[in-house]
Amino acid sequence: MAGLSVTLFVGLLLIASSRADNRVVGGENAKEGQFPYQISLRHNNRHICGGSIISPNYVLTAAHCVVMLNEDGTYEVPPPKPFSVQAGSINRLEGGVVRQVEKLIVHEEYNSPFNDVALLKLQSPLTFTDKIKPIALAKAEVPEGTKVIISGWGLLKTEADEPPITLQWNTLKSISRKQCFVSIFISSEALICLAHSAGHGACMGDSGGPAAYNNELVGVAGFVIGGCGTSKPDGYAKVSYHLDWIKNNSDFTEGTPGVRVVGGETATEGQFPYQISLRRNGLHSCGGSIITKNFVLTAAHCVGYSDDDGNYTLHDPKTLTIRAGSTDRFMGGVLVRVVEIIAHENYDDLFNDVALLRLEDPLIFSKLIQPIPLASIEVPPGEDIVISGWGRLEHGGDIPRHLQWNTLSVLSRSDCKDRLPYVTDALICLGHDVDNGACNGDSGGPATYNGEVVGIAGFVTGGCGSSYPDGYAKVYYHVDWIKKHSNL
């Protein structure tokens, strides 16, 4: 490589000498919740690398972060026991939650610096909050000259003794394969090259960490040339190139995390005529309930996203459609475009998670398409509630083709408070047996009682089908808001 030195951001080779690896050079301190997908990969409780949350059970990182190099240049995958991840904190030393790693999955064609990707399967699932969230994976190439955001706890410079305590971030620029080859004599479809001025870039301890563009993960930190903060571009494993491998070796699926009915039954045609499939760019993402011929009730988190600064932005309504009048996720019924999204002005992650969709054309009611009345009373504790949706059948499992349903039970506020840390008058807690309940893909969907919609699917705790109750936005609490913003 023409005398240039390639430095891996971090690896077990460096762990032996107790050196951390790459941190962002020339960057800025991150704010709480700015990078909710970022984790600290730890070996014997010491930070060694970064990584990105892609599902409740899986983290994506670099292969060189977890392999052990042999003297003959080959590598082996060590036992996972010493590895853990810290999520939900920008402080390298404290905060957030820690999960042990159950399994290390290294790309079978890893050969530094190519195919430098690995997956970490966690012993127990992460519970998503405003500080712990997955990041979508890029399906397309990053345009040349695009600004890409990197983050990590890597060293501030090559000679530094200790990595920073607070997570750092910086903005680099993608360059073409040709420009990359001219600069560092390395070129591969599996790599993305990120350019920067001297005194900036990744460093030891950043390895495995994210490069993000347009709220998608586009790269996995791999190597620097000639030391940290040189004028040479940094090398990242290209996520779009490795997308199939990631999907085949984890439970990652495309689409908005939602909730599907775990342990339920397949619905019959016309059983839930108020249920719709909310679709973004043609793919099912959430559920919803028809409340008038022009309006659908769903969850706020289904129709927008929070940026790195925690600012909530609605999706473009042009990207949304609904399918009504069918229990088949792929076909049947009618497709109608959304022309307006109205999210609760006080929406804050788990709370006031309510939104309305105004349709381009009014629905024509039939035996398969009907509105459902809004809750007229508080549901007494212990009453049975019916939920429905196209969410996953089990945690990390498949999304069903046909609508599912199940019966849960209303918990009192005191019972809910004993089991969940977030309880308000605006929430309804639904208890269930293990391996039952809502899951990803059910979000925004209905919970019904006595022929009325009483809840909007919001969140699960401890993974789908856990022993914890599921959280639904209480329709009775929000009924005045819903009526005010719809034509009811």
UniProtKB/TrEMBL annotation:
The region annotated as signal peptide is 1-20
Q: Which Pfam families match?
A: Trypsin
Kindly list the residue ranges recorded as spanning the membrane.
Answer: none
The record places domain Peptidase S1 at 24-251, 261-487
Matches recorded under CDD domains: Tryp_SPc
Cited InterPro entries: Peptidase_S1, Peptidase_S1_PA, Peptidase_S1_PA_chymotrypsin, Peptidase_S1A, Trypsin_dom, TRYPSIN_HIS
Top-rank taxon, per record? Eukaryota
Which Gene3D superfamilies does this entry report, sorted A to Z?
A: Trypsin-like serine proteases
Any GO BP:
proteolysis
Q: Which UniProt keywords apply?
A: Disulfide bond, Hydrolase, Protease, Serine protease, Signal
Q: GO molecular function: any one?
A: serine-type endopeptidase activity
What family does the Swiss-Prot or TrEMBL record give for this protein? Belongs to the peptidase S1 family.
Q: What is this protein called?
A: Peptidase S1 domain-containing protein
Organism annotation: Glossina morsitans morsitans (Savannah tsetse fly)
